[in-house]
Amino acid sequence: MEALSSLITKRSRADKSNKGDKYELLFDYIKILELEEPIKQMKIIHVAGTKGKGSTCAFTESILRNCGFHTGLFTSPHLIDVRERFRLDGTDICEEKFLAYFWWCFDRFKERATDEVPMPTYFRFLALLAFKIFAAEQVDVAILEVGLGGKYDATNVVENPVVCGIASLGYDHMEILGNTLGQIAGEKAGIFKRGVPAFTVPQPDEAMLVLEEKASELDVHLEVAAPLDASVLSGLHLGLEGEHQYINAGLAIALCSTWLQRTGHVEINYLKEMTHLPEQFVKGLATAALQGRAQIVPDQLIESESLGDLVFYLDGAHSPESMDVCAKWFSLAIKGDYKQHNSYESNHGHNELGPSHDSVEISHHEASKKSSTQFLLFNCMSVRDPELLLPRLVRACASHGVHFQKALFVPNVSVYYKVGTSASTADTQVDLSWQLTLQRIWENLVRGEKGNDVKNTDHTYEEVTDDSEKGAQSCENSKVFPSLPVAINWLRDTVRKNRSGHSQVLVTGSLHLVGDVLRLVKK
Asked: Considering the entire predicted model, what is its pTM?
């Protein structure tokens, strides 16, 4: 972890102004690892997009694994353990293999590093490591999720993928990718390769025009994959929650079908008109899993004390559009409305990573006996615009009759330049200015919703001295905590005081925050 952390730079990520941050270095790195030929031989599915690329990759991997192929999946970010980024046959790579491949690559780079070809930066190293792992493990198919953008992403050293996919496009990372959907689409279309078929999902016109233009320049046959019709799942439900997943599933089906055809595996019969799906596809879609996306985890500590309950609803949504989706999922999930809500087509017991993970089933009867209270636990990176995110979340929840009693704002535990569980959480003075900004936006928003006078934005902060709230800054509708453990302890104490209630906490705004919460709650 320390070696890996040494590769994290504070510089901005690759973009046009810095020639993709010396993008051509990647080809030197590949030579150093002797991966040129293995990458050419690899049968790759490459996926970019603003939202849904991780889910699309998870569905794709699950389908092809259920078709009997030896799969490799590279995704980002990780939530708890860096090994989550490298999955072989649907399971995180084991520690022994990870360490062997890690040091083989790291030492090789260290020995050969020069001023011209320095050590690769963090994400580049991880992408190169993925290529090494998949080559050495001789996977039948490698599914690569773009880290950021497309054109200058480290995964884009692939010159001849079997098929490419572009998931939903929206506004994110504008500081790097550009301010219009057209610019963003141009960046993502950077993964298109001459003559390699590509699929996308229905997109806003501005984005679609750019994708089509880039595709025709490269003689790429670009098709729009239709969202999956739930009726072809023969009564089963998608392994990932939320109706937007039907869009991602449709894209995954198109990618898998094309991959099977282009690699000569015609024995798996599937029909173009999608009225029928092969059994392996249905099973793959129903058992796909992704941590931190619409995941429900009860707090084990409070459960063991049986004084009430505290349940975390985690979703790494961090763009305005995904806030709407997240709010809708949360609002339905807390009402136990899964079964009744047909368009969701989802099954509560199946909401997580299969049987090995906690799943929570709260019956209507049981839920109605206890009063329930909703809290929001939120943070977002300072490059995101909370003035866009928070109002979308509040309004979408309100439209389903859900109102948060309090919003809690915390800094992320995962210190920016450290990875792994030992990332320093020492009681150093934490800079909470960003969290206080989020709090100010929230207070104005909630007061506006309640119709109060919003002119007075200088809220009176009470500095709380109560031990369970060390250093918390409280307003009428929110609190800022100096660290996540303090916030979670406050939630636990609140549940203990109320004894009989349900406390339902929506954790969103950042996948890093979701990972930090999972790490603490699953201990």
From this structure: 0.80
